[in-house]
Design a protein that fits this description.
Elements lengths: L1 H4 L4 H11 L1 H27 L6 H26 L4 H25 L3 H23 L8
Helix pairs in contact: 3-4, 4-5, 4-6, 5-6
Length: 143
């Protein structure tokens, strides 16, 4: 009976919530970053008079949005994690590389080369984010 009435310290509850929020917050931040990049590129292309339906502008937007999605996911996952930030960034990068590889395979089976290119760019972004945040020259230690 005393086990049911013991109070859990608030710090442990907040710590558990932060660990539970790592993947959802990273996914939401990556989607938001991707959306912002797409909107800003469309606006700047329109302002500069560049045709947004041309091959090069589509390829540029596809590549940039994929890389930003991948890097954003890894960095936000590592920043939200309460500890072991370098390990979390490497795990998020590995998860993203697997996700990107699956996306490439699915897109190529459907012969959707634009999505295959986006998946390649996303995998590059996941790898770059994991390297920079986890093992790069400016490795982020636990704060």
């Amino acid at each position: 009976m005393s086990d049911l009435t013991t109070k859990v310290p608030l710090g442990r509850v907040l710590l558990a919530f932060r660990w539970a929020a790592v993947l959802p917050s990273a996914l939401l931040a990556a989607i938001a970053a991707n959306w912002v990049v797409v909107v800003l590129n469309r606006l700047t292309f329109a302002y500069m008079g560049i045709d947004s339906a041309s091959f090069l502008s589509k390829a540029f937007l596809n590549w940039i949005s994929g890389v930003v999605f991948g890097c954003g996911f890894v960095v936000v996952a590592a920043r939200v994690a309460p500890s072991r930030k370098a390990i979390v960034s490497l795990c998020a990068g590995a998860f993203g590389l697997l996700l990107g590889g699956g996306g490439i395979i699915i897109a190529l089976q459907d012969q959707d080369y634009w999505n295959a290119g986006w998946a390649v760019a996303m995998a590059v972004g996941f790898g770059a984010g994991a390297f920079e945040y986890g093992v790069g020259p400016r490795r982020h230690a636990d704060e």
